């Protein structure tokens, strides 16, 4: 089996680049169209609240299905078999929390940001500050994970190896160019298109990435005459692991012979990851603010139905793509290309394309799947940038510094500058951090969302006694414990694959995923903080709950 | 409160007090009970099933490896069952809201908007 780089002539790369360019031009056009009518704060933060259930459902899928899902899960399944599937399942089941408890109530009781709902019956400034810091932490961790990955992905998708050059760029330069171009695009979507432009871009990109994943998965299944068992059997044989490839344990919760303690930690780490995945989604700010783009709570809820359908289908496809790559590309060829397995889906597309129409077919399929991965990167980072800029402008600038006195126009202007600022910072950090192992940042973002945001959001909606002290303690408690535990975990120091390498060892916390400890800690902080303060506002709780459940007095769609 | 009604309150035609008054209306109490009676047990059951799946993946690997037919083992089927449960709950919640929630909720909203709860 040849590797991508050997297969990839300059002509193939030009085809991939051409498709990237088409994607860029189409999305810029959509942004300009969508952004023309963006003038008020409601337009900028919430896209005018005019999106229908299917539109927001597609946009949510665009926001949620990242390149890490697209390439990462398929790659993990291709290398480790069954264990990669755990991510798919956690990412999907999590949506039930959003559907049953959060979507409709949040839409009905908030305005633009997560902090709106959290601070509704609290003292505004402390809660907004805390909620905004949590939103920014989660979104920036997630953003950095995506941006650092982007450089490597673009060189991977273009097949530029170490020591090679393409259009005068070596792989290092190509990585920087990839990061900068992605940064410029995400800022452009948000600053020129606001939420309306970004939403349409995400709808388009969701169609591209899910559609192409669907096509590729169908082609794999056609190759196996829709016999899933035969596909799995092939994958297990080629992997050299046999039946173990189809069972849990090759990647997570590994059993270390003779070391019962490490085995225990590994298993607890798996459970910790599972908890953060399933409880984190309903606390991710960039996903939650999408519910404000619908005209009412009922539409927000129905948009989650669409999202669950699309996301569920996509994660089923990752199973076929992952095992397909394991069977048709093979572990050695994948690792030769990318040790983390991110190249599994693109390599699979090339093999399938060649199977159907020779080397031209391979080149075309590869270029298509590369564009789908590019779409996944762009739509997620755009959603993250808008979550950051909305929170900076609406919560910190207007809510905290101007005490709610800034005009909508001032807020929008501030938000656009905030988008440029956050984008610039993210690009600079990503360029300098591109050789670091930052994959843990995604799990950390989910852990913070599950520890700081979800408990306080649920208490705020459903617990009458909950108050300012509880919200502030819950948010900071969850945030600090999640980040603190990761700093003292093996992901940060003490092992070969740690961020700081083997030389530094401050890792006294044995789990890589903090959720198992930080989620209960966030919850306890919220409860203890609440009980230690005598503040209580039963009238505001009454009106918040009536709003949440009936939609009375909820923000409406703007007129145009 | 440091916020102005324009920034963070209801649209002008309905007051905060009118909305809050609905909270003690027996119809609202009933609406809330109907909703939580569905969502809380269903969500807890779905999350419990997910937790069982994660625990089995961690601690019952031989069990997950039991082959049912061809190359399809129990772990894969239980994993796929998570998709089935998620889709089923989504469908069931949609049916529940259509039959038992949306009409009542809209009725209370109209009451509030047309002059407050009685």
TrEMBL record, chain A:
Q: Does the keyword Iron-sulfur apply?
A: no
Q: Which Gene Ontology cellular component annotation is one that this UniProt entry carries?
A: plasma membrane
Membrane topology of the entry: Multi-pass membrane protein
Q: Which UniProt keywords apply?
A: Cell membrane, Membrane, Symport, Transmembrane, Transmembrane helix, Transport
The transmembrane segments are 14-32, 53-79, 85-103, 130-160, 172-191, 203-224, 270-292, 304-329, 363-392, 413-433, 439-462, 469-488, 508-531
Q: Name one GO molecular function term.
A: acetate transmembrane transporter activity
Which CDD domains does the annotation name? SLC5sbd_u4 (cd11480)
Compartment(s) where it occurs, according to its Swiss-Prot or TrEMBL record: Cell membrane
Example GO BP: plasma membrane acetate transport
Keyword Ion transport, does the record have it?
Answer: no
Tell me its family: Belongs to the sodium:solute symporter (SSF) (TC 2.A.21) family.
Question: By what name is this protein known?
Answer: Cation/acetate symporter
Look up and give the organism this protein is from: Glycomyces artemisiae
TrEMBL record, chain B:
Membrane among the record's keywords?
yes
| Pfam families for this protein | DUF485
Q: Which domain of life is it from?
A: Bacteria
Q: Which UniProt keywords are given for this protein, alphabetically ordered?
A: Membrane, Transmembrane, Transmembrane helix
Organism encoding this protein: Glycomyces artemisiae
Instruction: Please verify whether the record's keywords include Membrane.
Output: yes
- Give the transmembrane ranges: 35-60, 66-91
InterPro entries, per this entry? DUF485
Coiled coil located at which positions? none
Question: What protein am I looking at?
Answer: DUF485 domain-containing protein
């Amino acid at each position: 089996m040849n590797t991508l780089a050997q297969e990839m002539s300059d002509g193939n790369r030009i085809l991939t680049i051409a498709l990237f360019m088409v994607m860029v031009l189409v999305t810029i056009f959509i942004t300009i169209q969508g952004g023309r009518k963006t003038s008020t704060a409601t337009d900028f933060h919430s896209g005018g609240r005019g999106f229908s259930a299917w539109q927001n459902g597609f946009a949510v899928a665009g926001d949620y299905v990242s390149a890490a899902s697209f390439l990462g899960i398929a790659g993990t399944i291709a290398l480790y078999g069954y264990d990669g599937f755990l991510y798919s399942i956690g990412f999907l089941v999590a949506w039930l929390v959003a559907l049953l408890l959060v979507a409709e109530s949040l839409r009905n009781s908030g305005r633009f940001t997560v902090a709106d709902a959290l601070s509704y019956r609290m003292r505004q400034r402390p809660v907004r500050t805390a909620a905004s810091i949590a939103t920014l932490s989660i979104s920036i961790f997630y953003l950095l994970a995506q941006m650092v990955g982007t450089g490597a992905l673009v060189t991977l998708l273009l097949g530029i190896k170490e020591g090679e050059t393409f259009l005068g760029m070596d792989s290092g330069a190509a990585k920087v160019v990839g990061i900068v171009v992605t940064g410029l695009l995400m800022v452009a979507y948000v600053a020129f298109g606001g939420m309306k432009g970004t939403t349409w871009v995400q709808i388009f990109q969701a169609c591209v990435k899910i559609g192409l994943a669907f096509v590729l998965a169908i082609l794999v299944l056609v190759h196996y005459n829709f016999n899933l068992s035969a596909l799995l059997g092939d994958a297990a044989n080629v992997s050299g692991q046999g039946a173990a490839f189809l069972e849990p344990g090759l990647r997570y919760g590994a059993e270390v012979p003779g070391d019962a303690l490490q085995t225990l930690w590994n298993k607890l780490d798996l459970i910790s990851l599972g908890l953060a995945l399933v409880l984190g989604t309903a606390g991710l700010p960039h996903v939650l603010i999408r519910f404000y783009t619908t005209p009412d709570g009922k539409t927000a809820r129905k948009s989650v139905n669409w999202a669950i359908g699309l996301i569920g289908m996509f994660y089923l496809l990752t199973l076929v793509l992952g095992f397909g790559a394991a069977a048709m590309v093979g572990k050695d060829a994948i690792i030769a290309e990318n040790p983390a397995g991110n190249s599994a889906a693109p390599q699979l597309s090339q093999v399938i394309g060649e199977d159907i129409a020779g080397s031209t077919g391979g080149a075309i399929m590869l270029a298509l799947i590369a564009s789908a991965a590019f779409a996944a990167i762009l739509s997620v980072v755009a959603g993250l940038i808008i979550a950051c800029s909305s929170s900076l402008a609406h919560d910190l600038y207007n809510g905290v510094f101007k005490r709610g006195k800034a005009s909508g126009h001032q807020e929008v202007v501030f938000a656009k500058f905030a988008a440029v600022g956050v984008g610039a910072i993210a690009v600079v950090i990503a360029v300098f951090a591109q050789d670091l192992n930052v994959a843990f940042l995604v799990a950390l973002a989910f852990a913070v969302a599950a520890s700081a945001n979800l408990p306080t959001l649920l208490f705020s909606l459903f617990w009458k006694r909950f108050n300012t002290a509880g919200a502030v303690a819950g948010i900071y408690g969850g945030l600090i414990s999640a980040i603190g535990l990761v700093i003292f975990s093996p992901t940060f120091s003490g092992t070969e694959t740690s961020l700081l390498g083997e030389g530094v060892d401050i890792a006294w916390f044995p789990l890589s995923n903090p959720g198992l400890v930080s989620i209960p800690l966030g919850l306890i902080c919220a409860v203890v903080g609440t009980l230690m303060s005598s503040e209580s506002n039963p009238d505001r709780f009454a009106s918040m709950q009536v709003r949440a459940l009936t939609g009375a007095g909820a923000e409406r769609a703007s007129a145009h | 409160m440091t916020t102005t009604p324009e920034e963070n309150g209801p649209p002008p035609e309905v007051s905060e007090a009118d909305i809050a008054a609905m909270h003690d209306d027996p119809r609202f109490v009933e609406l809330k009970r109907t909703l939580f009676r569905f969502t809380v047990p269903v969500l807890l059951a779905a999350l419990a099933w997910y937790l069982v799946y994660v625990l089995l993946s961690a601690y019952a690997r031989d069990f997950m490896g039991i082959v049912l037919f061809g190359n399809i083992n129990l772990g894969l089927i239980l994993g796929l069952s998570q998709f089935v449960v998620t889709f089923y709950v989504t469908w069931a919640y949609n049916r529940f809201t259509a039959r038992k929630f949306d009409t009542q909720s809209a009725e209370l909203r109209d009451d509030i908007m047309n002059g407050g709860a009685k």
